[in-house]
Amino acid sequence: MKRKLLGVIDATTYHDNLEELLTHRSLAALPFAGRYRLIDFVLSNMVNSGIRSVAIFPKMTYRSLMDHLGSGKNWDLNRKRDGLFFFPSPIVDHDQNTIGSFENFAANLDFFYRSTQEYAIITNSNSVFNMNFEPLMEMHQNTGCDITEIFHKDGYSMEMFLVKTSLLIKLIETRNETGYTCMKDVVLAHNHDYTICRYEYSGYTKMINSIQNYYSTSLELLNPKVWNQLFLKDQPVITKVKDEPPTRYLKGSEVKNAMIANGCLIQGTVVNSIIARGVKIGKGVVIKNSIIMQKCQIEDNCYLDSVILDKDVKVEAGSSLIGTARDPFVVRKGTKQGALMNS
How many whole angstroms separate alpha carbon 192 and alpha carbon 186? Predict the structure, then answer.
């Protein structure tokens, strides 16, 4: 399979409903589950399926994404042949929610010409799922499909497409004559002779496209049944390795139904929440139903409920931040929240 399939990840997607979390990063680089980024899921799926050549097409604010992935070493993609490739989009104005823009690919057509893989799988970068692509490849070949679109068993498209690399090149080259701008255009059109197939995926999957969706999906992971569907021993979700000491739980701290990453210092109470690496939680602090990203500092006697703190946020002593499940309270990266601000 590794000789046959090319991975193509479209990381240009942007959703206005996530603006507060995307001012400094792309959607693909959005932190998730305390120690991962959203792109880790689809990239790990590709690597676990034997794919050894992956092209990522980001757009703007992609520094954090490139910093996270680096040379691809953690995914075993730092190779002399094939490996991990970045092709930042040169196009400013195009539909930011269209997966696999042919115009985007056209700017890097030489890459597809040079590819030795017979097939390509085109995916989004913001789906949380754990899938082996080998059964998909087998079905596609056995049924003689030209394009196979992945659907979830519940009936919605997962915005992922399998196609011969030669056909993808043809679609890119003829985009102006055909009017097809992306794979979805081809799948929905009726004025061609291509055989379009569906592949049904029945596992856990969520596409992150709003603050509420990000919040609810994150807290779903605290349910062991959901966790066990997503994090599989034989198909691990791979991420950037960071060497940090274990979290310290000081006298008086209390943690219930929570995910706590390494490098934290906890003196207060954490309930039903996700705490990322390097977070400091002071005495008398109560955190409930919240997502706290990397290196946040929450000083003594604060109360947080239904809150999302982006990275490097400082919450001053005595502050109270309260949101709801439908409308979590979001604090942008690197900002300070004080008790006087909330009074």
Answer: 8
pLDDT at 3: 61
In CATH terms, the superfamily for domain 248-337 is: Hexapeptide repeat proteins (2.160.10.10)
Alpha-carbon span 280 to 330, nearest angstrom: 18
Return d(Cα 153, Cα 307) in angstroms, integer.
Answer: 32
Q: Which parts of the chain register pLDDT below 50?
A: 2, 343
322-343: per-residue pLDDT in tens? 999 999 999 999 999 986 555 4
Q: What is the pTM of this model?
A: 0.95
**């239904």: which residue's tokens?**
306
- To the question of domain 5-230 being in CATH 3.90.550.10, the answer is yes
3-state SS class at 230: helix
Instruction: Name the nearest CA neighbour of 203 among 150, 161, 156, 153.
Output: 153
Counting beta carbons within 10 angstroms of the beta carbon of residue 241, is it exposed (0 to 12), middle (13 to 18) or buried (19 or more)? exposed
What's the burial of 55, exposed, middle or buried (CB within 10 Å: 0-12/13-18/19+)?
buried
Residue with token string 């006298």: 251
